[in-house]
Amino acid sequence: MARLCRKGMGKSLKKIIAVILTITMITSVAGTSLTSTKAAIDRSTHMFTIFDVLNILKHIVEIEPLSSENRQLYDFYGDGNIDIFNALEVLKWLVWMDNIIGVNPQPNPPSQPQNLRAMSGDRAVALSWDAPARNGNGNFSHYEVTYNNGITWIPTTERSLSFNSLNNDMTYTFQVRAVSSAGKGHPATVTSTPRAPQLTVDQFAAEVVRLTNLERVARGLPALSAENLRIGSAAMLRAEEITTLFSHMRPNGTEWHTVFTQFALNPNASAENIAWGQSTPQAAVNAWMNSTMGHRESILSSTYTHIGVGVAQSGSTFYWVQLFARGGG
């Protein structure tokens, strides 16, 4: 057999050798050794020089034939003839030495997780996703998730993860990547914005009643009753009226308290608080409690026993009314 001594390797030759190694590796991976393959072919009729082998393969990969300079990179001893099987084995060794392609393949991490989904809620976002389309050439380990630009990655073996205590109305960018023994894959990305639940006008009004009574009870005062629905209806009408005229005067030119008569109410004592521009019940109650114009005093007065709350919206602006009453209904 001809002996081959390695001195160097050009780029074109490396490409050809890579193809030869690929062929050799396919045979090896399939579980068929070169020895058993040799036995199946008459070696006496399959003798080639190393350059014959390389020039045949160049037609497959469509690169130029070996130049005389490339030939000079190798010294041959003996008759210069080598059978194709020995050529493959020698070239396999050469490629391994140069680490062109893997006798030990390069790491190939998983692809990104598929169908990453985000469901937002009140100060919360729930993520879910599907497995990567490709696991690469490593053993799958876990997923990693982040929402703060990759500063902190949270590991999980599940395909879902929830985040709580987020800020409402702030958009977050979430990333999920798969991790295997071959490395960390490219992350999938999704954005989501947590939001407070959207309440109806009636729910807003009920929340104002609740918050108002919390302020009273905290100071030893009895809670106000909202059971008289006519007071609530009167307050709703007043809320609609102040969207066009923000005043304790009604659009028809009468005082605010005439609304009680309109709903067949005749309280012994009464008061009205109005506000506009606050986007939540809490903000409205806070504004009244922080007021120095009598609003706080009405909320904390021991005179009143009943309350009605009205809420109206004009465009993106909310208008708020509290009617306080004692008796007469």
What's the layout of helices and strands?
Blueprint: E1 3-6, H1 11-29, H2 34-39, E2 47-49, H3 50-61, H4 68-71, E3 74-77, E4 81-83, H5 84-98, E5 114-121, E6 124-130, E7 140-146, E8 154-156, E9 160-163, E10 172-180, E11 183-184, E12 188-192, H6 201-217, H7 229-242, H8 258-262, E13 269-276, H9 281-289, H10 295-299, E14 306-314, E15 317-326
Antiparallel strand pairs: 1-3, 2-4, 5-6, 6-9, 7-8, 7-10, 10-11, 10-12, 13-15, 14-15
Helix pairs in contact: 1-3, 1-5, 6-9
Quick summary:
The protein is of the alpha+beta class. Helices cover about 30% and strands about 25% of the residues. The protein has helices at about 10-30, 35-40, 50-60, 70, 85-100, 200-215, 230-240, 260, 280-290, 295-300; strands at about 5, 45-50, 75, 80-85, 115-120, 125-130, 140-145, 155, 160-165, 170-180, 185, 190, 270-275, 305-315, 315-325.
Describe this structure as you would to a colleague.
It is a single chain. This protein has helices at residues 11-29, 34-39, 50-61, 68-71, 84-98, 201-217, 229-242, 258-262, 281-289, 295-299, and strands at residues 3-6, 47-49, 74-77, 81-83, 114-121, 124-130, 140-146, 154-156, 160-163, 172-180, 183-184, 188-192, 269-276, 306-314, 317-326. By secondary structure, it is α+β, with helices and mostly antiparallel strands. Strand 7 and strand 8 form a beta hairpin. The radius of gyration is 41 Å and the shape is elongated.
